[in-house]
């Protein structure tokens, strides 16, 4: 008698826009069980980039071959600076040029840049086709592949053009992290750390204790960090898919961080690096507003520094950063709204006086050369 294979460990995500599983495991990419039950189609298209495709596209093509008559590969240019209309158009050119119909399934193989762009292309092509997230960075495995936010950047603001479009599945292969550069691993840790202050004080304690193991890519530590992060994200987006309220807490550190990225020019600092510095600023702002003791900011600084993440913003000036922050998606009528910490594990979204925000920026930025 043949015994059914144990299913791969999976976490459910349930939203009005779609329910799906996050599959997490070493070797998931080559595991046939990861690819069962996806929407049927003649064609599948793997959207990746020139750095990731040579590493993992062949394995994915082989895994998908039993399910689709045609599996094509589109390697896009690599980098945040290519998260643009021009690159998005390359996806549409490929889909139309290959005769892809409205059942075609897109597979996003790469980090958050590829995931966000492929998801947006899937939301738009023929008014919406299915897509699957195959995240290969820590950041994408713990955050960007889950929850259905898709976007490209605009020179005036990060992720300003986009759509909500939930994937059909998220397949995280832990083995892909073996080839991730250390700087990218640290950037991903910034988004892992984020979940502690906003939602789970015990997880923050755990990250502090396990940081050496995480930095050494200990498999069990990384697997737990990814699973717990995905659980928290699934819990949040399950309650507020479209960010009418609660979901905004996932943007802890992002109001400052997005402004740093846009101000410097996309691709100078990694997204996770900008978020790290932004989390320190938002923690300090929370303390200056009397929500948490100043010691909380120092706790965050120590953890971010131990993670190899930047804690001083570049010399952009508080006037420029404030101007960029007013374009933030959480801003209402030009009033910037910040994700603030009330206690480890509890966040609130609120405005803050410009003068205080300036103080925070100046305290945590390099001085502008006179
Ligand atoms: P990224 O996609 O640019 O990937 C980082 C770098 O690592 C790239 O050079 C990439 O080619 C390379 N890479 C990817 N996987 C690799 C691997 N396994 N081995 C070796 N190299 C590999 O950056 P990211 O940090 O993954 O994602 C950042 C993006 O995610 C930002 O654009 C951000 O706005 C977005 N984001 C979106 C959400 C969301 O909810 N949609 C959430 C957080 C971040
Ligand atoms: N990373 C923010 C969100 O998904 O809402």
Number of individual domains: 2
Mean pLDDT reading: 95
Q: What are the bound molecules?
A: nicotinamide-adenine-dinucleotide, glycine
Write the CATH homologous superfamily of the largest domain. Answer: Dehydroquinate synthase-like - alpha domain
Walk across the major sheet and give the strand order: 4-3-5-6
The residue ranges in which pLDDT falls below 50 over 5 or more consecutive positions are none
What is the CATH topology descriptor of the largest domain?
Answer: Dehydroquinate synthase-like, alpha domain
What general form does the structure show?
A: globular
* Main beta-sheet annotation: 4 strands, parallel
CATH architecture of the largest domain: Up-down Bundle
Strand tally is 11
What structural class do helix, strand and pairing data support? Answer: alpha/beta
Beta strand %? 15-25%
List the total number of helices. Answer: 12
Could you name the CATH class of the largest domain? Answer: Mainly Alpha
Distance between the termini: 79 Å
Helix percent band: 40-55%
Order of helices and strands: EEEHEHEHEHEEEHHHHHHHEEH
Radius of gyration from the alpha-carbon trace, in angstroms: 20 Å
Characterization of this structure:
The protein folds into two domains: 10-179, Rossmann fold (3-Layer(aba) Sandwich), CATH 3.40.50; 182-363, Dehydroquinate synthase-like - alpha domain (Dehydroquinate synthase-like, alpha domain). Strands 4-3-5-6 form a four-stranded parallel beta sheet, with helices on both faces. It has a three-stranded mixed beta sheet with strand order 1-2-9, with helices on one face. The protein has helices at 53-64, 85-97, 112-124, 138-144, 182-199, 201-215, 219-239, 254-264, 271-288, 294-306, 318-325, 354-363; strands at 10-15, 18-25, 43-49, 70-76, 105-110, 131-135, 149-154, 157-164, 169-173, 337-343, 346-351. With 370 residues, it is α/β, with parallel strands linked by helices. The radius of gyration is 20 Å and the shape is globular. 43% of the residues lie in helices and 19% in strands. Strand 7 (149-154) and strand 8 form a beta hairpin. Helix 4 packs parallel to helix 7 (219-239) and helix 8 (254-264) crosses helix 9. It binds nicotinamide-adenine-dinucleotide and glycine. Nicotinamide-adenine-dinucleotide (NAD) binds next to helix 3, helix 4, helix 5 and helix 9.
């Amino acid at each position: 008698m043949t015994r059914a294979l144990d299913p791969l460990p999976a976490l459910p995500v349930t939203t009005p826009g779609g329910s799906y599983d996050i599959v997490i495991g070493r070797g998931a990419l080559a595991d046939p069980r990861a690819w069962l039950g996806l929407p049927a189609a003649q064609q599948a298209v793997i959207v990746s980039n020139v750095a990731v495709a040579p590493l993992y596209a062949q394995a994915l093509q082989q895994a998908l071959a039993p399910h689709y008559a045609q599996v094509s590969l589109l390697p896009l240019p690599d980098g945040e600076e290519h998260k643009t209309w021009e690159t998005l158009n390359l996806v549409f050119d490929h889909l139309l040029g290959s005769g892809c119909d409205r059942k075609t399934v897109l597979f996003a193989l790469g980090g958050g840049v590829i995931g966000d762009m492929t998801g947006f292309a899937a939301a738009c092509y023929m008014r919406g086709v299915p897509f699957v997230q195959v995240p290969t960075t820590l950041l994408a495995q713990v955050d960007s592949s889950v929850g259905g936010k898709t976007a490209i950047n605009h020179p005036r603001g990060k992720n300003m053009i986009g759509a909500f479009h939930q994937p059909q599945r998220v397949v995280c292969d832990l083995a892909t992290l073996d080839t991730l550069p250390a700087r990218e691993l640290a950037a991903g840790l910034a988004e892992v750390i984020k979940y502690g202050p906003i939602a789970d004080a015990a997880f923050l304690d755990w990250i502090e204790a396990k940081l050496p193991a995480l930095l050494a890519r200990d498999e069990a530590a990384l697997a737990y960090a990814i699973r717990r992060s995905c659980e928290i994200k699934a819990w949040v987006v399950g309650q507020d898919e479209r960010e009418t309220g609660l979901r905004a807490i996932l943007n802890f550190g992002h109001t400052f961080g997005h402004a740093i990225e846009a101000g410097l020019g996309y691709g100078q600092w990694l997204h996770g690096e900008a978020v790290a510095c932004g989390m320190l600023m938002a923690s300090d702002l929370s303390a200056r507003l009397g929500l948490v003791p100043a010691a909380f900011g120092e706790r965050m600084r120590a953890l971010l520094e131990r993670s190899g993440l930047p804690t001083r913003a570049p010399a952009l000036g508080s006037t420029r950063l404030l101007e960029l922050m007013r374009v933030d998606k959480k801003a209402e009528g030009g009033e910037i709204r910040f994700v603030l910490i009330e206690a480890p594990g509890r966040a609130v979204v609120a405005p803050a006086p410009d003068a205080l925000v300036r103080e925070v920026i100046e305290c945590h930025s390099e001085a502008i050369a006179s």
